[in-house]
Design a protein that fits this description.
Length: about 325
Amino acid sequence: MRSYSLIAPAKINLYLEILGDRPDGYHELVMVMQSVDLADRVDLRSNSTETMRVHCDHPLVPNDTSNLAYRAAYLMSQQFPQAFAQLGAVDITIHKQIPVGAGLAGGSTNAAAVLMGLNLLWELGLTQPEIQELGAQLGSDVPFCVAGGTALATGRGEKLDTLPDLDKLHVVLAKYRSLSVSTPWAYQTYRQQFESSYLRETTAQVNRRREVHSGAMLSAIAHRDSTQIGQLLHNDLEKVVLPHHPKVAELQKRFRESQPLGTMMSGSGPTVFALTHTQAEAQQLSDQMRSAIADPDLELWVAQFSHCGIHIAQ
Ligand code: C5P
């Protein structure tokens, strides 16, 4: 095969707790990640040159070496020089559906697709854990994006424990088009404000991780208790992003008025999501938001939980 088209799903965080600092400057996290079927398509085509090229039609996505998808391709060329020399570089075309700078891992899932795609194109035969290990060099969310589904993510976010597939709940995603949040900014601001509450000792972090592991959210997931899952949504980064962006807090307040299963900001935001049992409820909620907030800058999507990570387009 000289080309592959891959589907690269977005993720939401059902749970995000910041435990403390790490020696590498990142934060020690406990997260529950969930794939949704809002997805980009990433096309890889051999270009018979030595130059990896990336193209995306979205104005906010760079078409240069700073694009995480490009960096994924470059990493593969460095790791597998023989395959690169024999089979050459690729043109990467990203068809964007996932909003950018949104807390939905759009960049990470594109990078994950490039790793998976080059593994196929160059017939490297890498296992999923091997691809995830490479992904961790690119970004904390990339390993999750490779596998998708529902997972507990610890460490920087790169250590994954697969959780049972949930029923395919429906989700409404809301984001102001012109608003994006820088992930480093969100974590730095959190550190400035909450560092005094960080767990300093490794044992305290290990114990807290264990508590979350045997705690209410994981139990609700094990029992596929959607009502409980909705009530237990949690994201520490809301504490810094919502006060800084009152419009985002307002989205959550509006969602709450319609009593969905639950509502929360995803990752470092500013996307806010709400969960419902059915597609009809999600569509109705989206329509209600559209009429409640008459701002053309507001974008809404109706999606569904997905059990898939990166996969080949049909
Ligand atoms: O790993 P990734 O490149 O996606 O992280 C983006 C930024 O988010 C990091 O530069 C860091 O500032 C912050 N971050 C963090 N702790 C994590 C993950 C991300 O502080 N576990």
